[in-house]
Amino acid sequence: MVDTNRDELGSYFDKIKEPILLYKGVVTCPVCRKKSLELEEHLYEVPYFGRILLSSGKCTNCGYVYKDVRLAETTKPKKIVLRVKGEKELRYLLVKSSYAYLSILEKNYEMIPGPASHGFISTVEGVLHRFMEALEVACKGREEEPGCLGNKKWLERAIDGKEEFTLVICDYEGASKIMGDDVIEEPLDEYCSGKKPEWMYSWS
Ligand SMILES: [Zn+2]
After folding, report:
1. pLDDT value at position 8?
2. Which of 29, 75, 84, 150 is placed for a possible disulfide with 59 were both Cys, Cβ 3.0 to 4.6 Å?
3. How far is the CA of 56 from the centre of ligand 1 (A)?
4. Intervals of the chain under pLDDT 70
């Protein structure tokens, strides 16, 4: 159900108790707008994070697959900042809810939330692998171009713990978290306001 590498988090997930089914039903699909998304929500008690909600669903009309992870007890909206100096921080676990914005500041790598975004639980290293996958898709057929090559090399070095960088999460709902030392949580600032997608302002 969780979209992550099982080897990376295998022992972590082994510690999780039986989940509780909170909701099972059919809701409106964010992609095709038909009431055909079969959704399940489970409450998990997990080490370090406490209680988290995992949602997963599939639309029987258009095939859209929905996944989200969020803290069950939400906090205030916040900006989460982590300076990644090497291997230690690469192993930190994080929850990024579907509506949170994530970036690697120095490289302008972004995960911009859309109405159909996914949330996930991952290590910091796992986030770098997600950017690598996105890069591979974007650079298909032009791998040797300087932009593609340069970013690939940077990500490879970062995955090896040889690049320092700043990971930022703008958590507009207070449903995300990074677990570890030296994680800074502060109120949302101008940077995060500027990254908040237009569609999110229409929330009631
Ligand atoms: Zn659909």
Report:
1. 53
2. 29
3. 14
4. 1-16, 202-204
What pLDDT is recorded for position 110? 95
CA 148 to ligand 1 center in whole angstroms? 33
Which pTM value belongs to this model? 0.84
pLDDT of residue 73: 87
How do the domains of the chain map onto residue ranges?
6-196
Query: How far does residue 204's CA lie from ligand 1's centre (Å)?
Result: 23
Non-local CB neighbours of 87 within 8 Å, separated by 6+ positions: 161
CB atoms within 5 A of ion ligand 1 belong to 29, 31-32, 59, 61-62, 64
How many whole angstroms from 41 Cα to the centroid of ligand 1? 18
What phi and psi, each to the nearest 5 degrees, are found at residue 126? Answer: -60, -35
What integer pLDDT is reported at residue 179 of this predicted model? 93
Give the Å distance between the CA of 165 and the centre of ligand 1.
Answer: 37
Tell me the CA–centroid distance for residue 61 and ligand 1, in Å.
Answer: 5
pLDDT of residue 165: 98
Q: What CATH number has the domain spanning 6-196?
A: 2.60.120.1040
> Which one-letter DSSP state was computed for residue 14?
H
Structure tokens, 15: 């510690």
Distance from Cα 58 to the centre of ligand 1, integer Å: 8
Helix (H, G, I), strand (E, B) or coil at 13: helix
Question: What's the confidence (pLDDT) of residue 65?
Answer: 93
